[in-house]
Amino acid sequence: MLLYLIQGLTLGFSAGVSPGPLQAYFLSQTLKHGWKRTLPAAFAPLISDGPIILLVLWVLTQTPDWLRQGLQIAGGVFILYLAWGAFQTFRRPPEALTPDPAQGNRSLREATVMNLLNPNPYIFWSTILGPILIAGWQEAPTVGMSFILGFYVAMISIFMGFIALFGTARQLGPQVTKGLSGVSALALLGFGVYQIGAGVLLW
Q1: Is the pLDDT of residue 131 over 80?
Q2: Scanning 6, 23, 53, 150, which has the fewest C-beta atoms within 10 Å of its C-beta?
Q3: How far apart are CA 127 and CA 170, in angstroms?
Q4: Dist CA 56 CA 170 (whole Å)
Q5: pLDDT tens-digit readout, 173-188
Q6: Percentage of the chain surpassing pLDDT 90?
Q7: Of the candidates 124, 54, 47, which has an alpha carbon nearest to the alpha carbon of residue 132?
Q8: CA–CA separation, 68 vs 124, rounded Å?
Q9: What is the pLDDT of residues 12-57, one digit of tens each?
Q10: Domain total for the chain?
C-alpha cells in the first residue's frame, strides 16, 4: 500500500506543478477576487475527474482520436473565453474591482469545465494513472484507494499553495496586480490558441 501511496503523491505533485491553463486561471481569479474566493477552484479535479476516470477505465480502452481532438478544440474555445475575462480585468482600474461573494462557486464551476474539456487528464488517466490504479485495485481496493488519495492530496495541496502565493502577489499594489492580470490573460490566450491549433491539426 505504501508504494502506491508514494506513487500517487509523486504523480500528484508532478501534475500540480506542471504549467497549464488551470494555473493561469488560478492567477487570473486570485488577482481579481482574492485567494479565499478562488480557493474552491483547487478542488475542481475531484469533480471533473470522476467522469473522466469512468470514461477511460470502464468505457474506453484508449482515448479515441476524435474525442481528443474535439476536447482540444472545445477546451481551447473555453480558455479563450476565460482569457477575455482576464483581459477585461486588466483593462479595468484596480479600484474598480469589487469582490463578488458568489465567486467561489463560480470559480469552481469554471475550473471544472476547463478540466473536463482538457484532453490531458484523459490521456494521463488512460496511459499512466489508469494502469497503476487497476493494478493496485486488483491487489486490494484499499491499495487502489491509497494511490488515488495520494494523487489528489498532493495535486490539490499544490494548487492551494499556488493560489495562496498568487494571493500574496495581490497585496503588492495595484500596478503589480494589473501587470500580473495582463500576464494571466496572455497565458490563457496562448493556451487557448495552442489547444485549438493542436485540435485542428489532429483532425
Answers
A1: no
A2: 6
A3: 38
A4: 39
A5: 666 667 777 777 888 8
A6: 13
A7: 124
A8: 12
A9: 898 888 778 888 888 888 888 888 888 999 999 988 888 888 877 7
A10: 1
Vertex 32 angle, CA 27 and 94, to 5°? 125
Q: Quote the pLDDT of residue 101.
A: 52
Q: Which of 40, 48, 12, 38 is nearest to 184 (CA)?
A: 38
Give dist(CA 22, CA 118) in Å, integer: 10
Query: How far is 160 from 42, CA to CA, in rounded Å?
Result: 6
Question: What is d(CA 124, CA 14) in angstroms, rounded to the nearest whole number?
Answer: 12
**How distant, in Å, are the alpha carbons of 1, 6, 118 from that of 144?**
8, 12, 24
Which residue is associated with the grid cell 496562448?
190
Q: Could you tell me the CA-to-CA distances from 52 to 45, 171, 191 in Å, in that order? A: 10, 37, 21
pTM: 0.75
Range of the domain at 40: 2-202
Q: How many CB atoms lie within 10 A of CB 20?
A: 16
Quickly tell me which residue has 482515448 as its cell: 63
